[in-house]
Amino acid sequence: MKTLFAFFCKALDALTGLVAIAAGILLFVPVFSIFYEVVSRGLFNEPTEWATELSTYCVLMAGFLGMGEALARGRHIHVDMVISHLSKRKNLILRLVVSVICLVFTAVFCYTSAEMVYTSYDLDMVAASTLRMPLWIPQLSMPIGIGVLFLQFIRLFGETMQAYHQEVKGGKTV
To answer: Which stretches are transmembrane (predicted)?
Structure first.
């Protein structure tokens, strides 16, 4: 079982890394498009109609795609005011409970966002702008990013279960 979990973690690291690279690349697009907009507007008095919209899509997509990497690196927001005062065993139990809640939330979010992407694709929905971006393209970052986040919560749950079992085997008191 441990080797299966180790394989899962290794594969998840690779997947998370690829998705994080995509998020990083997406963050460069706004830099160049806004730079182009400034030069085009300032030097040639020819503003673009697409730069702001494209930048918005890319930043939002990068945010969703980067969530799994943030959790994997321990960079998500967390409040340790309570957990810093708990014993190790109680802290592990709390982490297990929170992991289960997060698993349920991310599973529902992933499913509903995938439905939204499918609906946008099926109905050929496009943005009501001059760019006319097919909406399923930026929306696709939601189920992908939340799906990776879901898998990271599975990992967190598994690692916490292992740590809890080690804590219990050690016979330490609460």
So the answer is: 12-34, 54-72, 92-114, 134-154
| DSSP per residue, 71-91 | HHTT-S----TTGGGS-HHHH
- Cβ atoms of residues 49 and 131 within 8 Å: yes
Question: What tokens does 167 get?
Answer: 């804590």
- Contact 120/134 with Cβ under 8 angstroms? yes
Rounded-to-10 torsion of CA 77, 82, 88, 91 = -60
Q: Which residue has the tokens 């609460």?
A: 174
Please enumerate in sequence order all residues whose Cβ is within 8 A of that of 74, keeping only pairs 6 or more positions apart, or say none: none
Q: pTM (2 decimals)?
A: 0.89
126 has which bridge partners?
134
pLDDT reported for residue 1 = 65
Cα gap 174→130, rounded to integer Å: 62
The domain limits of the chain are: 2-169
The Cβ of residue 156 has, within 10 Å, a number of other Cβ atoms equal to 19
Q: Along the chain (174 residues), what's the average pLDDT of each consecutive run of 10 residues?
A: 89 96 95 92 88 93 96 82 83 92 97 98 93 95 97 96 88 52
Number of neighbouring beta carbons within 10 Å of residue 34: 15
AA letter at 104 = V
